[in-house]
Amino acid sequence: MAMSGVQKAALLLTTLDSSTAMELLKGQPQEIIHQIALALSQWDARKDKNLDQVAQITREFATDLLKARGGMHVRSFVGTLLQGSAGKEKAAELQFKMKQTMLERDPFIMISEASPQQLAAVLENEPPQAIGVVLSAVSPKLGTEVLARLSEEKAQLTVWRMTQGKELSGKTVRRIGEMVCKRLMEMSSDEGITVSTAAPKETLRKVAQVLSGLDKDKRDSYLETIKKRDDSTAATVRALMVTWEDITKIENKSLQQVLRNVDASILAKALHGADPTINEKIRSNISERMSQMVQEEAQLMGEPRRKEILAAREDVVKPLREANESASLAFIEEESEVFS
User: Fold this and answer.
1) Looking at domain 111-239, which CATH architecture does it have?
2) What class is the 243-325 domain?
3) pTM for the complete prediction?
């Protein structure tokens, strides 16, 4: 989905130190500052921190901003931004309005901030289709943790429902979100807890990401349930557990073990026109001799067709999937709370 100018500006500001960001915002209309702060709060609440997207935006504005000059905690940044621009009293008022606006726009923001225990307790008695809607709207990590806390039968049915990718109206999805939000708030009140407020392939990718966070036995059990109902869907989910784009998330040692068995000619084609971060990740995990061989192959092969490039990338990813199937592939743990 295309990003608005405010969203791009908000992401760009996260690559700057607080003082520089504040300097850039001086003289900006209060409404613009409010919108930027709201955009930052929404990304923070939904844990939507796509570093590739951040890099793309910074390249779009200026090449020398490609590398951030330091990470910053988003909530702290928003607070500083508002207080520095509007004063403490006005900042408190704006923050309250931001919270209300965020919940009106997307009730799933509060859901994304709930703990796995709370969310699982609220969802346990809901139908699998409703649970699937919620798990598809939160981060894969939270989805995995919630799924692991549901009863076995409910989890099995929920995973199957998620693979179907049946489109629901926006009104229905929002109604489900509002219902879950209401129950979370009721639970918070009772327990004294504070809770902060597709396309088929995309749907199956979400399922794959949720399942990949489970231990092997449980993951295989859920995949077997899908396979009994639809073998093709199960195969697709398995394939989407590790994709070409996931290479940057794999621990170096695991990646090195797989890449040492990949032919240089395959790597040369796979890396042709690849995203710089993936290119660097692969090249930094192969030997100097292999790197030279890949370079030589690239110079000799000419301009490969798109079909050949995709086939080569599939050849690289296939052994990574096999390693993941055997639980021998290690992923870098997700960072939390800070843009870097």
Assistant:
1) Orthogonal Bundle (1.10)
2) mainly alpha
3) 0.53
